[in-house]
Amino acid sequence: MGKLIYLLDTNILSEPAKAKPNTAVMERLERYEGCYCTAATVWHELRFGCEKLPPSKLRRHLESYLRALLDNALVILPFEQKAAEWLAGERARLMRQGYVPRLRRW
């Protein structure tokens, strides 16, 4: 595994499960395999989206995809109160300084 340098959100992690995934996203996922992780809050969104579906072919497909992510050692970072409080403080501090974060394109 490489150095974890990318924190993936729900949209990026959902892309491979689509019928016609975006080729640019798929190429980057392959290129940076082993260098990305996700957060527990994102994993929650993915699991919740799956859990609320009725039993169906789509649900089985998504459950299989999520299992494959875990089988391939996707790192899921915990998100705890201390982390949430630090993030809130940092965002407020940066906003007071006039910094508006830009989304990093990988």
How would you characterize the overall build of this protein?
The protein is mainly alpha-helical and 106 residues long. The chain has five helices and three strands, in the order βααβααβα. The radius of gyration is 16 Å and the shape is globular. It has a domain at 6-78: 5'-nuclease (Rossmann fold). Strands 1-2-3 form a three-stranded parallel β-sheet. The mean pLDDT is 88. The two termini are 18 Å apart. The protein has helices spanning 10-14, 23-31, 40-51, 57-71, 81-96; strands at residues 6-8, 36-39, 75-77.
Q: Which secondary structure elements does this structure contain, and how are they paired or packed?
A:
Elements: E1 6-8, H1 10-14, H2 23-31, E2 36-39, H3 40-51, H4 57-71, E3 75-77, H5 81-96
Parallel strand pairs: 1-2, 2-3
Defining traits:
mainly alpha; 106 residues; Rossmann fold; three-stranded parallel beta sheet
